[in-house]
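From the pipeline queue, job 12 of 40. The input is one protein chain; the requested action is below.

Action: predict structure.
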Amino acid sequence: RARKATPEPAVPYPKATAGAPGSGKPTTVRGECRLVPPMQKAGFETDQLGMTMPRNISDTWRISLCPSKDTVLRGIFRVARLRDCDLTSRFVHDKEIEKELRDRFGPDELTLELEGPELVWMQQRHVGECVYEFGYKVETPGLYRLVGFSYRGSYESLKEIQGPTAYFPPIQYDDLTGEWAWIDLHAERDADDEYHKSTTGEGELDGGARPMCSSLDAPGRWVHKLGGKGVW
């Protein structure tokens, strides 16, 4: 007799009006920075593989969300390494190139993305002392899931100075955010909708003014169609 398949548990999806638990306030407010705590299954890859780690992910990494003063639809995420910040290791033979890479990218290889009504990849920028900023800009208000990983540290992803044998730095999939790191980007929807209309043009989200783009010459993204099914 065939066994009935057990369905996968649904990922909790907060209500559109969800705010900080018990606070009665929106989770995201224009012009106000807040911490984004790691959620379920955030941690070091070796943790997830059953190996013992001496610390949890929040001891090493801290993520903050800082919307602009005009709208929550634009702003920055700030990711800070709290320990083991390596700013001195040599990794490139040319000292001028090394200084530029050190200042611009920093010692850590990170990714940060928003998943929701739009898929948004954010570019890493090192602002000093192992602190990184990722600017975001969305056109569609809604709930987004923040996805962040740390892959390599200590300039391992940039290293050209090697020993006598070839060396390929291993990737470490350290999950900075966990599965359910929800970001509410329509907490002040009325104000932000007016800001959106003033900066993008009335009717653009209905397809009237949106230009066609190609992945060959412009960054693209999926956009969920408001009031309808499917994506653009």
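Job complete. Residues 111 and 149 are 5 Å apart (CA to CA).
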